[in-house]
Amino acid sequence: MGNSSITLQEIVDGVSTIGDLNPVLVSTGGFANEPALTIANDVFGDMFAERFPWKWNRRKIPPFILNSTQQDYILLGLCNLGWLENGFRVQLNSTQVPPPVWPITTVRDLQVSRVGAGWPVYACWFPNDQLEQGVWPGPGVKYVSPIEQTSMPWNPWTNILDVNGNILVLLDYGTTGLVPPVAAEWVPPPETPNMPEPENWPVGSRIIDGTCVWQVADPNGQGIRVYPPPPNNSGDVWLIRLFGQKKAQRFTSLLQTLDPVPDDHSKWFRDGFVAYSHRYSTNPNVQRRYQQMKLDWLNAMAAEAKQDNREDESKGFYPAQGLLSPQYYTDPGPGNPYWRQWGGS
């Protein structure tokens, strides 16, 4: 069940009672759903912008374990991530109980790097088809699970391309077979021989490769790039846990609810709907009020997103490099994750 029980139609009906806005939503020129759907999608576009990290819209990104030398990771099923908020790394091979945890900084973009280091510092997301993919390592190659290992085992990349350009993601560790894995062509079930090929085939299909199992990933899905990538071997085993904001749903019907907006936050959607309705008015005097109403609405939401200042913010500013030195110093990891040198080596 979603967060909301309020439909878009209820919002439209309520706003239509405002005299200046009634012509906008009632006299629609034969298009019963417009401009209401466009207004609703405009409102959601602003409500779920990066400046509004709503707690009720947060999602946990599927955790993943880093692989030797690999920088890019495809997370099966991840497709509705709007932006990353923050994250942390867990040192799985530590003998300490519970295992040590340090923060990861989420950023907008990261360049491809082949220089490995002992711990990841940054993470960002990319569409799967923009991530770097590996190649099949050949027959009889063993993939070793890093779970319960004392150090990072050497493995080939765990997301690869087959000969047809399909992205394959390793599901089960094992030893590769004799021939490269290739996504199968569509074969309708015997009981329904005329069943058409699914639109996204072969996404989701699985391939047996010796004792390894691969799954075809959606090229339009999402994955994560970390920096720096893990070293070749003998390093720590890191589990990455990230958190982000979901994309807003797109309205295609007045019968849709405001999900994921909870009912007790529906006023912010309604206020935004009122502001944007002014934009679509044919009355210049009404339309002229749009910019100020929108600004007032955004400012009010900013205050609400901060819990009316009842919650302190734990984040702060930390120098990324020496003020008098051009050198760049990365996170030295365990001990003090935010420490930076102020120059020199």
Note the main attributes of this structure.
alpha+beta; 2 domains; disordered C terminus; 345 residues; 6 helices
Mind sketching the topology for me?
Blueprint: H1 8-15, H2 22-26, H3 36-47, E1 58-60, E2 64-65, E3 72-74, E4 81-91, E5 101-106, E6 122-127, E7 159-161, E8 167-172, E9 206-209, E10 212-216, E11 222-227, E12 238-246, H4 266-279, H5 284-287, H6 290-305
Helix pairs in contact: 3-4, 4-6
Structural overview:
The protein has 345 residues and is α+β, with helices and mostly antiparallel strands. The protein has six helices and twelve strands. The protein has helices at 8-15, 22-26, 36-47, 266-279, 284-287, 290-305; strands at 58-60, 64-65, 72-74, 81-91, 101-106, 122-127, 159-161, 167-172, 206-209, 212-216, 222-227, 238-246. The strands form two sheets. Strands 1, 2, 3, 4, 5, 6, 11 and 12 form an eight-stranded mixed β-sheet that branches. A four-stranded antiparallel β-sheet has the order 7-8-10-9, with no helix packed on it. Helix 3 (36-47) packs across helix 4. The longest helix has 16 residues, at 290-305. The model is unreliable at 325-330 and 334-345 (pLDDT under 50).
**Overall mean pLDDT score?**
86
The quaternary structure here is single chain
First-residue to last-residue Cα separation: 55 Å
Largest sheet: 8 strands, mixed
Count of distinct strands: 12
Query: What percent strand?
Result: 15-25%
Number of helices: 6
Overall tally of domains? 2
Q: What's the Cα radius of gyration?
A: 25 Å
- From the helix content, strand content and strand pairing, which structural class follows? alpha+beta
Low-confidence stretches: 325-330, 334-345
Helix content: 10-25%
